[in-house]
């Protein structure tokens, strides 16, 4: 690709973004705009067609766009000439209207493809630049994450694969010579690619060092990405975490002084509980997870959801079943927002019970094991009774 000059590049991008919006308008509102010669969308498109030699000829990747604009001009002129009231004129207008809408779609697609190439090329060059501008690189990483998060595109995927961008992002994440800020944004880019198409990119995560590095970084952003990856990849990733001996490190986040890290550590534990197989859950219990959860639950930021007392006789009479459930969920959410470790033992137990990683008999056995460990960890019978009641009856969400 022959890049536009640094001076022309931003101008081309600005013009193409406006052109993309105009093309989208033609497809979204074809019925009442296509017959108007002063339509802002058509006007914008035709004005660019007039300038195409100056703006588009500098980039061979825009040659198809230039041809689409020429075809659009021809169709609009044909539409304007078919102003009669005969059946032939009516059919001609209908065909021209359809063709204009179709070409507008092709124009939008060509513009997006050009923008995607620019995003990938600029980011690839910036990641490989030893004299990198950190602010510029972060901006490009955010731009890439936002684009990938818009949904799947075969052309965009091909660009990512051709540029080997996933490997570049992983290399930056694993390189301590890059700043923590850049490494974290690279991690967000990796998570976005997994959401973009898990089937294509999951192998890179399972075979690479991404997960180990995220855990070793032990920042709120890296653990947020780790939780996202577990939700996306599910049991295979939990298997990898367990086989690499990383579960004790994840549980250690619950001991951090930083509250946000503790909360994210709990989120991670809950995700592992939902997707983990027997070996992963066994490891968590052997590492003293239940004792730590009991400590968190009886702390100032803990509490028992069972004590909220939302099931009053008045509510049962006056509120519908759906309304009552909604009210309960709303109260639980408000309480957990202020007390993030409320009923965390039962919340973990419920994750095992409703999760995907365990067989039914394993779920029953682990519930009894959790009850036993709660009684061992509790400082009083009353404290144990409340937590055990929540575990046995699943009063946690």
UniProtKB/TrEMBL annotation:
It comes from the Eukaryota. PANTHER family: ARMADILLO-TYPE FOLD PROTEIN-RELATED, ATAXIN-10 DOMAIN-CONTAINING PROTEIN. This is Armadillo-like helical. It comes from Quillaja saponaria.
